[in-house]
């Protein structure tokens, strides 16, 4: 009876939270439907009143004089102009309707799922269990060091000190990337958006201006292509210069990951800003040249009741203000909007709590590496190539790999992003969904990191789908997975200093094949077990193979010389003896390389 009472209380609390979420979603949906209904009714009432006010009487229609030849010629000109405007407006409406076939990102005020789940006392106790495990494991390592060596090496944090030894240089590189994004991207886009208006003449249908209109159209096309090439060159230089600097200065792993991750984030933000605002600048130019009537676009916008996203808008300026771009650079989203839902105030106690939990999960990750990777793989030599030790190493790494996954999820996707969202009063906190209930890889990819998934869906999948068509939907889907796998491998390869595409093969090859084989929509719990088992084994394999290759490059001589050594795994050709060359870790302290502790 006591157990049943606990189960009933847990079920009641879960039902209360779930009912609260459903009520909130229903309220938001009802509010949106009411606003759409009121807007449509108001537009219908306005159009009826306008028609009633402009309706002539029957006597006026009968007494209306016959039109002259000059009136007929003027009407023909107006008719030609209206027909051109109608064609342009229909093209814009077709573009809008084709884009509305894909759902767009809707930002609204909502909390993260973990924030809502942690309000339940039974879920909160799970977090307390992880904290107690961390405390006990830290004391275990400390007592082991005291009894075996008489000192506590764990609290020296020499590995962390080495990884952050050049933090000031890392911050300077980040500041240079930030300033280049602010100064070059925004102000060059601002110049392009306003300068192209000077090449757009006011639309005219006289035969004498046809040649001038054609010349200006050609000049505008050349002007746009020049700036497109300049944008591609900027992206290439933004990728090359930071990478060349961190390789020349021999940055440690963590600072490399920080710079590379921020480099990718700035590029994704830049592309989102340009991709969202370039069509608006072009549409503004068409309205400026009177090729498209703004009133027709407004009517089309309000008449399209199915467009719940409200993403289509008439631009009032060719380029948004700098303050909106600056807020977007720090906002925890990769989808550009002129405005986002905001909270009323900042809860600084909540910010401090989230940052403290992020630091705790970082300490937990450091312990996992110190306890499970460093003692096992630091003395790697040719005997580790045997199949027995290889399989056992992968199986032994599944548990710490899974814990690394939980640390990355809770530390970054929940604590770090929620802390920045609270400081910026960013109200939409849906950075992830219930990925732990996924029964297919496609569902896991969509719900694990919603921030990145929204960017890939909006700016990669939709554009590829529009260019290639419905027949090549599978190609568009693989383009998303391939690009994501390439970016992940780009960061890992440059951070570790060698190309070892384990993650790329698991992500872009095995993951995509599993997406095609496994059912996409199923509620069978066996598939959820398969997803969890695949994650654990895959993470254990990554942790094992990347660690083996890292220490093989410390303890084994080169197999080939030159740039080819970067692409050939040294662990495949490791032999006992020989000269040990460590070009990537000259600054790594001897305490990390030669500490005599074991499992």
From TrEMBL:
Family annotation (InterPro entries): MBOAT_fam, Oat_ACAT_DAG_ARE
Bilayer topology annotation: Multi-pass membrane protein
Pfam families attached to this UniProt entry: MBOAT (PF03062)
GO cellular component, one term: endoplasmic reticulum membrane
Keyword ATP-binding: no
Presence of the UniProt keyword Ribonucleoprotein in the record: no
Keywords, comma-separated and alphabetical: Acyltransferase, Endoplasmic reticulum, Membrane, Transferase, Transmembrane, Transmembrane helix
Active site: 488
Main localisation: endoplasmic reticulum
Gene Ontology terms, MF aspect: O-acyltransferase activity
Family note: Belongs to the membrane-bound acyltransferase family. Sterol o-acyltransferase subfamily.
Protein name from the UniProt record: O-acyltransferase
């Amino acid at each position: 009876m006591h157990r049943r009472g606990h189960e009933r209380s847990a079920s009641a609390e879960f039902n209360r939270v779930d009912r609260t979420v459903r009520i909130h979603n229903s309220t938001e949906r009802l509010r949106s439907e009411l606003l759409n209904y009121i807007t449509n009714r108001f537009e219908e009432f306005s159009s009826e009143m306008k028609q009633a006010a402009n309706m002539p009487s029957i006597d006026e229609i009968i007494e209306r004089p016959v039109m002259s030849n000059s009136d007929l010629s003027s009407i023909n000109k107006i008719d030609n102009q209206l027909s051109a405007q109608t064609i342009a407006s229909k093209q814009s409406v077709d573009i809008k309707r084709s884009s509305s076939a894909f759902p767009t990102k809707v930002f609204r005020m909502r909390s993260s799922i973990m924030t809502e789940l942690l309000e339940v006392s039974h879920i909160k106790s799970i977090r307390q269990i992880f904290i107690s495990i961390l405390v006990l494991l830290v004391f275990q390592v400390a007592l082991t060091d005291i009894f075996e060596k008489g000192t506590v090496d764990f609290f020296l944090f020499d590995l962390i000190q080495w990884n952050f030894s050049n933090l000031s240089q890392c911050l300077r590189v980040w500041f240079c990337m930030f300033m280049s994004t602010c100064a070059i991207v925004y102000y060059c886009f601002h110049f392009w958006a306003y300068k192209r208006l000077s090449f757009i003449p006011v639309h005219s249908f006289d035969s004498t201006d046809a040649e001038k209109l054609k010349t200006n159209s050609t000049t505008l096309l050349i002007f746009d292509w020049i700036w497109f090439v300049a944008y591609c060159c900027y992206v290439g230089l933004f990728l090359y210069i930071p990478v060349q600097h961190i390789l020349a200065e021999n940055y440690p792993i963590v600072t490399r990951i920080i710079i590379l991750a921020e480099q990718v984030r700035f590029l994704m933000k830049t592309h989102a800003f340009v991709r969202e605002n370039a069509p608006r600048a072009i549409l503004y130019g068409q309205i400026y040249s009177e090729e498209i009537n703004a009133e027709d676009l407004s009517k089309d916008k309000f008449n399209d009741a199915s467009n719940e996203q409200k993403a289509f808008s008439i631009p009032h300026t060719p380029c948004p203000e700098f303050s909106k771009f600056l807020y977007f650079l720090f906002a925890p989203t990769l989808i550009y909007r002129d405005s986002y839902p905001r909270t009323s105030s900042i809860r600084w106690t909540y910010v401090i709590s989230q940052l403290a939990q992020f630091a705790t999960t970082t300490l937990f990750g450091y312990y996992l590496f110190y306890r499970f990777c460093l003692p096992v793989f630091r003395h790697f030599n040719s005997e580790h190539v045997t199949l027995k030790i290889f399989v056992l190493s992968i199986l032994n790494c599944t548990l710490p790999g899974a814990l690394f996954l939980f640390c990355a999820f809770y530390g970054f996707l929940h604590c770090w992003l929620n802390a920045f969202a609270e400081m910026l009063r960013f109200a939409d906190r849906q950075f992830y969904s219930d990925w732990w209930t996924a029964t297919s890889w496609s569902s896991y990819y969509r719900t694990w990191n919603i921030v990145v998934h929204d960017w890939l869906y909006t700016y990669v999948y939709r554009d590829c789908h529009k260019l290639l068509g419905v027949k090549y939907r599978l190609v568009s889907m693989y383009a998303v997975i391939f690009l994501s796998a390439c970016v992940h491998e780009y960061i890992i390869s440059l951070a570790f200093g060698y190309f070892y595409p384990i993650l790329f093969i698991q992500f872009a090859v095995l993951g995509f094949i599993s997406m095609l084989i496994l059912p996409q929509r199923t509620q069978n719990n066996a598939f959820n077990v398969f997803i969890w088992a695949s994650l654990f084994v895959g993470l254990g394999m990554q942790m094992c193979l990347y660690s083996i290759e890292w220490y093989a490059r410390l303890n084994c001589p080169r197999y080939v010389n030159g740039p080819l050594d970067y692409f050939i795994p040294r662990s495949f050709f490791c032999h006992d003896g020989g000269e040990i060359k460590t070009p990537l870790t000259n600054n790594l302290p001897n305490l990390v390389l030669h500490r005599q502790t074991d499992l």
